[in-house]
Amino acid sequence: QHEVGKPLRNCYSLPGLDFAYGLYVKRRDGGVAEAIGHWDTVKPRKSKKIMPRDFITMNRGAADAGCTTARDFGLYYKFMDIRLKDEVRRSKPWVSKIPADMTFGRPARPSTPIFDIIQHRYKELWMERQRARTVVQDLEKKKLEVRENRTTFLRTHQPPAKEESFWHPERFEKV
């Protein structure tokens, strides 16, 4: 029976004191002579890289072949598998556009003169632009011609007030 409150005992026996845990790696330690005479070199693996597909060329070829539907394009891609060439993939066209003395990114903006900020120069320039804008808007409003219709004509030219006449029905005229 198990002992109450105690964990189960491990039933494996441990190896002796001369046992080395881990993996044994053979080393050649021949000193300086071996280090100079025998270089350990790694031979590169020759694996063929599969380049990605060149969809630009394949699309151009499919259009020339008369493909119009997605199914036609899919069949063309299946049978005409064109891959990118190594030189095209590694070429960097943007390298020639970068100036030689530029390290990274865009040049910094010139700093804002603090004297102009203290004198509220930018506020004044903004106010002048707003005034000029309102003047232009007022001129445009004046240039705007309103076409004359009956309503506008009656608003501007009020009809004369009717004189009050003491009109009586005809039956009262003979009285």
From TrEMBL:
Protein name: CFA77 protein
Species the sequence originates in: Sclerurus mexicanus (tawny-throated leaftosser)
InterPro entries, per database record: CFAP77
TM spans (from-to): none
